[in-house]
Specification:
414 residues; alpha+beta; five-stranded mixed β-sheet; 14 helices; 22% strand; elongated; binds adenosine monophosphate
């Protein structure tokens, strides 16, 4: 039997998993502060949720879905993204009105694996349903921007565009197809094929970037209402002091978008898979799924790519203190002390079973504790000996003062 995880998937283990946990927690807290409730939808859905929602002619649906038939003959697909599932869940619940949901979890796409392009990858996202007000677009963009900055990606470029509404896109598509057809021979094979299936995607084709610099753009075809929406978006971003770049050829891989589209690109991250996240407005998605008219706007951040872009940073300590029980008779008191520390929010652990002091110090190092705390003779006076494992400094402290000492030394890393 092979002990390797399937191609394109990763095990998330310490120390990297500590950054995962820290950032996932930060995501939960941030979205909660912005009033997004938590949502979790199934990891698989009926295939048609994605086929209809994401779009039959998109690369994701055409080539990348993990689709299977269950024992009763239902066609199911591992979710390649979350938006279609969240909108399906909202419709199924019979809700109406505004709904703000935040999620995090794995998605699946059958891709050629490389750094930042995995077959199982994690997305963090929000969906703001039930309003087409520009403030919703702005808030979605802001929450992603805040998170990426909090995570440590300060050198970030927000790229924005508007692809207009359905009729604008139809008019634009016609002109674009004509323009592309006239230059067919100069285009890559993929783009040639897309002229018929998904011409909008040729706009941001990497291999045809040079030719496409001259192409018409959706901005030139916006209706007055869509153009006003785009102007309000830009003004709102300026007001919020979120710097952005207009990217008139930015489109997104999924069909359901209209009007606002955006991506976050870290400037320092030069790899080919450059966007760490993106999103946009999808006022037509509910109807594609057979629901009523329901405007919405959302974003999805690629968690794996965020971690890649952050690069190798010194991993956070796993524990604040590791208890070293120097006197075996005090083991049960040590466990009770550990519980008091944990109750006080201190990350604390100790070894199970009776072990030598040396073995316990070794474990403290291996477990990446910031300090070893020795429970020995001085315990009778309510004291412990603390050894700071970074500096090697050693001193005695009243056991009751340990939590505040830990908080004072912890710094920003947790
Ligand atoms: P999309 O809606 O396809 O643009 O996906 C949103 C974000 O998810 C992207 O900006 C990426 O950061 C991330 N993402 C998409 N596909 C993958 C993948 N195969 N591996 C890792 N991250 C991905």
């Amino acid at each position: 039997m092979s002990l390797r995880a399937p191609k394109g998937t990763d095990d998330i283990l310490p120390p990297a998993s500590r950054t995962w946990r820290r950032l996932l927690r930060a995501w939960d807290l941030l979205t909660e502060r912005y009033g997004f409730d938590y949502v979790a939808t199934p990891i698989f859905e009926a295939t048609e949720v994605f086929a209809r929602g994401v779009g039959e002619s998109t690369e994701v649906v055409e080539k990348q879905m993990y689709t299977f038939e269950d024992k009763a003959g239902r066609m199911l697909t591992l979710r390649p993204e979350n938006t279609a599932g969240v909108v399906r869940a909202y419709l199924q619940s019979g809700r109406s009105g505004v709904f703000k949901g935040a999620y995090s979890g794995p998605c699946f796409r059958y891709e050629r694996p490389q750094a930042g392009r995995r077959r199982q990858f994690w997305q963090l996202g929000v969906e703001y349903l039930g309003t087409d007000e520009i403030e919703a677009d702005l808030e979605v963009i802001e929450v992603g921007y805040q998170f990426l900055r909090e995570a440590g990606l300060s050198d970030l470029e927000l790229q924005i565009n508007s692809i207009g509404d359905g009729p604008d896109r139809l008019r634009f598509n016609e002109v674009l197809v004509e323009w592309l057809t006239a230059r067919r021979d100069q285009l890559s094979v993929d783009s040639q094929r897309r002229i018929a299936t998904n011409p909008l995607r040729v706009l941001d084709s990497k291999s045809d970037a040079e030719i496409m610099e001259e192409s018409p753009t959706p901005l030139e075809f916006l209706s007055p209402a869509a153009a006003a929406h785009y102007e309000a978006l830009k003004a709102g971003l300026v007001e919020r002091e979120i710097t952005f770049r207009e990217a008139p050829r930015l489109v997104r891989g999924l069909d359901y978008y209209n009007r606002t589209v955006f991506e976050y690109v870290p400037r320092s991250y030069e790899a080919a898979q450059s966007a760490v996240g993106g999103g946009g407005r999808y006022d037509g998605l509910s109807e594609l799924l057979g629901g009523p008219a329901l405007p919405g706007v959302g974003l999805a951040l690629g968690f794996d790519r965020i971690l890649l872009a952050l690069g190798d940073r010194p991993p956070a300590r796993a524990l604040d203190v590791f208890l070293v029980v120097a006197d075996p008779d005090r083991r049960s008191e040590a466990w009770a002390f550990a519980r008091r520390l944990r109750d006080a929010g201190i990350r604390c652990d100790l070894l199970a079973g009776e072990r030598s002091v040396k073995a316990q110090f070794k474990a403290a190092d291996r477990r990446d504790a910031a300090a070893a705390v020795v429970i020995g003779q001085e315990w009778d006076q309510g004291m412990v000996t603390v050894k700071d494992l970074s500096s090697g400094e050693e001193f005695k402290l009243a056991a009751g003062d340990l939590p505040s000492w830990v908080r004072g030394t912890r710094g920003a890393e947790t």
